[in-house]
Design a protein that fits this description.
Number of domains: 3
Number of helices: 19
Strand order of the largest sheet: 6-5-7-9-8
CATH superfamily of the largest domain: NadA-like
CATH class of the largest domain: Alpha Beta
CATH topology of the largest domain: Rossmann fold
Strand content: 5-15%
Mean pLDDT: 90
Radius of gyration: 22 Å
Shape: globular
Helix content: 40-55%
Number of strands: 15
């Protein structure tokens, strides 16, 4: 999948330089070289990057696969495409290893849960690497296994086989394994409605983790009674596991017992800045507004359309020349879309970028995903070629990484095998539901 972004001469390709102390020791020599470059234009950066990437490509040949997510800054998206890699949404990225068995070294420039999803579906002879292991997800950080699993255990004790877990792709393998153990499935923003509809046929209650807003939007799309959609305590407030009681359940235990969907209380900070007032401001000026379903329900209801990153990108690609489109999602994505849209005669704006001081908002990018940059890409490929890539960058199923310190908790082989079976079953159920209607 290609984004259509082009590296234009003279246009800077790096958004922000990271401080030197943000790099692992093994990556500092590459960062020092990069920071010493006189500028960030393609004429300067590309020869430097070529000196590391091209030898790695020659060394690994067709067995090397480079990946990036749509939310990456334009510099990484463009560079990954320049070197023959793939840029896609989380669903398509998760399928890359299983659909390309000839790729043995998979290097991902995105966040850790995406790399782990690739690793969960990869074959034994395929290795998954991430350019920066500290690249995490704030939503996933509000749904760590030590927070969710004790609460899930209480729900399972209360409801038994009636409870099925649906784990959004933005979760660790440990939570995807929870979905597998309960007969549930993984979902993405593009297929959540299909997966939840399927899950409701498997059990009378669905625990949806972690994004409360995607869960609420999915419930609304399926026409569920709002009184039977219950949100658990705000994960940012609890910061850990909590007892199932009236204080930690919206509407109390009576509402919980009647619920069809139980929503974990996490969210994406990038998408919760949007309000219906943002939407109406643009619509009143004859712009079409489309948003990502991690936005609040009232924002999705006010917008002219909503859908996954692929949906948003495709809307830009298919809009006729002269269209004016406002997109409510991550800032790097919108900037990338604006560049491609301009070449097609389509005007693109970010939903939060309203030139009115009364709003005081601006479209922001995913700060954690932006921890991947050209020095990280150059460094991991060069170190892999030399056979000395740091183990911290290797991604195995079940790895739990602290996004602040970079420390990692890795399961032993037996635990990892069990987790892989359970999490893979949840991923495979998603694939079966989406592609085969199972």
């Amino acid at each position: 999948m290609t984004s259509g972004l082009q590296l234009r001469p003279g246009i800077p390709i790096c958004q922000t330089d990271l401080p030197l102390d943000w790099y692992q020791d093994e990556f500092r020599p590459y960062a020092e070289e990069y920071l010493a470059l006189p500028d960030r234009t393609p004429e300067t950066v590309l020869p430097w990057l070529d000196s590391y990437v091209r030898p790695a490509q020659d060394h690994f040949g067709d067995s090397l696969l480079l990946l990036a997510h749509y939310y990456m800054g334009g510099e990484i998206v463009k560079l990954v495409e320049r070197y023959g890699g793939t840029v896609a949404d989380s669903y398509a990225l998760a399928l890359q290893a299983t659909r390309q068995p000839e790729k043995k070294i998979i290097v991902e420039s995105a966040v850790h849960f995406m790399a782990e999803s690739i690793a969960l579906l990869a074959r034994e002879d395929q290795q998954t690497w991430i350019t920066n292991p500290k690249a995490g997800c704030t939503m996933e950080m509000m749904a760590k296994d030590h927070m969710v699993l004790p609460v899930a255990d209480q729900l399972l004790e209360r409801y038994g086989d009636d409870l099925v877990c649906v784990a959004y792709m933005n979760t660790s393998g440990r939570l995807k394994a929870l979905a597998g153990r309960t007969g549930g499935a993984v979902c993405t923003s593009s297929n959540a409605h299909q997966v939840v509809e399927w899950a409701l046929k498997q059990g009378s209650k669905v625990m949806f983790v972690p994004d409360a807003h995607l869960g609420a939007n999915t419930a609304h799309r399926l026409g569920l009674d709002p009184s039977r959609v219950v949100r658990l305590a705000d994960a940012e407030r609890t910061r850990g596991a909590f007892p199932l009681d009236d204080d930690h359940v919206e509407g109390g235990l009576a509402a919980l017992d009647q619920a069809q969907m139980i929503l974990w209380g996490a969210y994406c900070g990038v998408h919760t800045v949007f309000t219906p007032e943002h939407v109406h401001w643009w619509q009143e000026r004859n712009w079409r507004v489309i948003v990502h379903p991690e936005s609040r329900l009232e924002v999705v209801q006010a917008a002219d359309g909503s859908g996954s990153t692929k949906y948003l990108w495709d809307q830009m690609l298919t809009a006729p020349a002269g269209s004016r489109l406002v997109i409510g999602t991550e800032g790097h994505f919108v900037r990338n879309a604006r560049e491609v849209g301009r070449s097609r005669g389509v005007e693109i704006m970010h939903l939060a970028d309203i030139p009115d001081a009364n709003f005081g908002t601006a479209g922001c990018g995913c700060a954690t995903m932006s921890r991947n940059d050209p020095p990280h890409l150059a460094g991991i490929l060069d170190l892999l070629r030399k056979g000395c890539a740091p183990d911290a960058n290797r991604v195995l199923a079940g790895d739990a990484v602290d996004e602040i310190t970079g420390s990692r908790e890795r399961l032993d082989a037996t635990e990892r095998l069990q987790l892989t079976r359970e999490a893979r079953s949840a991923l495979e159920r998603m694939i079966a539901v989406v592609e085969h209607g199972a």
